[in-house]
Amino acid sequence: MPGRNSVTEQDQQDEGGRRLRQAQVSRIPSEHDLDVLSRQLGRPVRDVVEIGARCVCGNPLVATTAPRLSNGIPFPTTYYLSHPVITSAVSRLEADGVMTEMSDRLTSDADLSAAYRAAHEAYLAARDAVGERAGTGHVPEIDGVSAGGMPTRVKCLHVLVGHALAAGPGVNPLGDEAIDRIAPWWTLERCYCDGAWDTTGQAPDADLSRHTLTQGLSSEDLAAKREARRRGAAAGDPAADAGPANPPKPLHTAPSEEI
Q1: What angle, 0 to 180 degrees and rounded to 10, lies between the N-to-C axes of helices 157-167 and 9-24?
Q2: 210: three-class secondary structure by DSSP
């Protein structure tokens, strides 16, 4: 489902210029940016090194994360969509089965498949560039691994939209298409920040989500936790979640696909 048949080539170029300016202006995150990101996500952000794209008002739309976190863990998801209005709009597309539709088209449309593979390569190159700017350099553990299902399928539209907003139009065809398809709920030309997240009180300073219980555990400890849950469920205790007697302190508060 092409998204821009009704506009001229000049319109596309103008739109491209606007998106690129949003992605490039004030790339380095300020304390205010980090505060806003934490409020948008409802948890403290970690290892954000740039703002990939901004709202017309200046607030972050996309957080850019270093390819290696400060604790040494490789992190392939470079561009993380943060704005609640956009994430909600993209979730509507996912709920409507758009990811399956797009994945099916990749198997039958050679041009789309080639453009999507090029987006994958562009993502890898951009991640290396971010790593150089952030001082982490190239991360060999994630060589060839991009995000969102690239280069052969669609697993996460949020990742593709984040990439498209950060890179500008013409780089990720399915990210661009998704941006067009959420136009009833969000467009780059308007600000949707008012009331989109809690601006009162202190920004989140602790991550209480369940994944923090397993961060930093060894593979043996993780296996023990899974086995304990299995035994508990078999015994009729769905809340059972026993682990090692003295689990190590979590190394960080971000799972492999979250900042």
Answers
A1: 90
A2: helix
The answer to whether the beta carbons of residues 116 and 151 sit under 8 Å apart is yes
Tokens for 166, please give them. Answer: 């950060």
Does pTM surpass 0.85? Answer: no
Helix (H) or strand (E) holding 24: helix 9-24
What CA–CA distance (Å, rounded) separates 246 from 40?
33
Tokens of 55: 């709202």
User: Beta strand pairing status for 79-81 and 60-65?
Assistant: antiparallel
Distance CA 124, CA 103 (A): 20
Give the C-alpha separation, 257 to 23, whole Å.
21
Radius of gyration of the chain (CA): 20
- The per-residue pLDDT string of the chain (259 residues; one tens digit each, 9 = 90 and over) reads 444 444 466 665 666 555 555 445 578 999 999 999 999 999 999 899 999 999 999 999 999 999 999 999 999 999 999 999 999 999 999 999 999 999 999 999 999 999 999 999 999 999 999 999 999 999 999 999 999 999 999 999 999 999 999 999 999 999 999 999 999 999 999 999 999 999 998 888 765 443 334 334 444 555 665 676 566 556 654 444 434 333 333 322 333 355 6
